Task: inverse folding
């Protein structure tokens, strides 16, 4: 048992507990987690490359193809470990993306047209131009389906790189990148749903639509317990899996149904808690443990319920799931997908392959032209304005950081080239190369054009 330390009268701290007492705003907490997640993501990507090219290469490949099945009576589902990670575990990633997107639309940068217009327009430019550049390199054949790969931006990596410059760049620039990346994620989700579905089974799709309607009805009926949402969302995931549409979209749909309105408004909550605190003080008996004081314990439970009711389920779920997704799900995905076997004897042909070149130029040049170019045009036409204390040269630097595709780009590559290992290898090589170059170029650019804050 850890030693309990008494720091003040009536206050007890376990070792390290004080470190978790610092209050952060939801946005600060979001940035902190994305930064740490980006560093962890980098470490697991490097580990995956080591495993794929070292003495454990065969074991690494074999482990990813281990079949895992679940069965209940006559029903069963079986997929490889790799598919469980990409089709199952990543649904949690999309769930958090959906929560972030909904929050941004309701109360974040995307809630105000004046603030949202620049990152939305920049994100659209940053998706269209990379896709066109890729298509220019791969206009036909099997490789053409990869046009969606360079459209994506990895929010964790990009924000992690920008956060390292937090003392030199304005907070509004980080907010701009967050809004840009979230719109980018939404675009990637729509592309996956519309263009990366080969065949559709209509009966399971109708079942999925009905399940989504059930989730929406939960919201409308005021259900705030998460268990009913979770059960129906799992069924929705399975229905989408059978329909042919990628099942991870169940995460987005589930997030869209989560309530974003608290049960108590702040004024009613304040009155309710004041009354409970009066009962608390009246029930308190000095020198006795709360476990032996039933009236006091009852008040504490009601206080806990009241605090939960004044909170927003959407924000609470984002808080709960962001840590496991950022620190577990995404690193596992990187470990399973970033491991590419590098054959140095054929490296030149790999790097000159149209798929590799289309992704590299799409992510680096396409994102830069698309984001910086559209932003310049919007500003020149007077349709938008720069974020507070931000210069256009810094927007250009962010457009380079947005070329870090990684997670979503690899995900789209897995969908597009699942039946072609050679093209998938080219795609992953292009993604890793472009992400590295974009990250370094964006960091150096922003370091040079930004001055330390006083």
Result:
């Amino acid at each position: 048992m850890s030693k309990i330390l008494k720091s003040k009268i009536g206050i007890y701290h376990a070792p390290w507990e004080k470190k978790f007492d610092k209050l952060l705003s939801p946005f600060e907490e979001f940035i902190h987690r994305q930064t740490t997640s980006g560093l962890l993501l980098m470490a697991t990507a490097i580990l995956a490359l080591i495993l794929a090219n070292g003495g454990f290469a065969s074991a690494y490949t074999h482990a990813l193809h281990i079949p895992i099945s679940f069965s209940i009576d006559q029903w069963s589902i079986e997929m490889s470990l790799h598919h469980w990670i990409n089709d199952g575990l990543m649904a949690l990633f999309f769930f958090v993306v959906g929560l972030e997107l909904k929050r941004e639309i309701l109360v974040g940068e995307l809630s105000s047209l004046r603030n949202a217009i620049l990152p939305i327009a920049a994100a659209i430019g940053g998706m269209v131009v990379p896709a066109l550049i890729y298509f220019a390199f791969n206009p036909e054949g099997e490789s053409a389906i990869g046009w969606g790969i360079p459209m994506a931006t990895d929010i964790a990596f990009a924000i992690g790189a920008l956060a390292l410059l937090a003392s030199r760049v304005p907070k509004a620039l980080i907010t701009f990148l967050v809004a840009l990346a979230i719109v980018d994620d939404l675009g990637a989700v729509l592309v996956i749903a519309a263009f990366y579905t080969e065949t559709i089974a209509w009966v399971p799709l109708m079942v999925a639509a009905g399940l989504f309607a059930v989730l929406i009805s939960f919201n409308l009926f005021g259900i705030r317990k998460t268990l009913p949402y979770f059960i129906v969302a799992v069924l929705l995931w399975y229905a989408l899996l059978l329909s042919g549409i990628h099942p991870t979209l169940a995460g987005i749909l589930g997030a869209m149904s989560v309530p974003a309105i608290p049960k108590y408004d702040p004024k009613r909550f304040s009155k309710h808690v004041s009354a409970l605190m009066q009962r608390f003080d009246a029930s308190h008996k000095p020198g006795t443990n709360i476990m032996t004081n039933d009236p006091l314990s009852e008040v504490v439970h009601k206080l806990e319920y009241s605090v939960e009711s004044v909170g927003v389920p959407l924000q609470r779920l984002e808080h709960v799931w962001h840590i496991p997704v950022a620190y577990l799900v995404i690193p596992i995905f990187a470990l399973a997908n970033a491991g590419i076997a590098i054959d140095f004897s054929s490296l030149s042909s790999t790097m000159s392959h149209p798929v590799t070149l289309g992704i590299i130029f799409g992510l680096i040049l396409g994102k830069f032209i698309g984001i910086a170019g559209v932003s310049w045009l919007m500003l020149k036409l007077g349709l938008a304005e720069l974020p507070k204390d931000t210069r256009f040269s810094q927007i250009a630097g962010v457009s380079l950081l947005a070329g870090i595709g990684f997670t979503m780009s690899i995900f789209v590559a897995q969908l597009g080239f699942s039946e072609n290992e050679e093209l998938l290898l080219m795609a992953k090589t292009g993604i890793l190369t472009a992400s590295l170059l974009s990250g370094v170029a964006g960091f150096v650019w922003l370091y040079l054009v930004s001055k330390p804050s006083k």
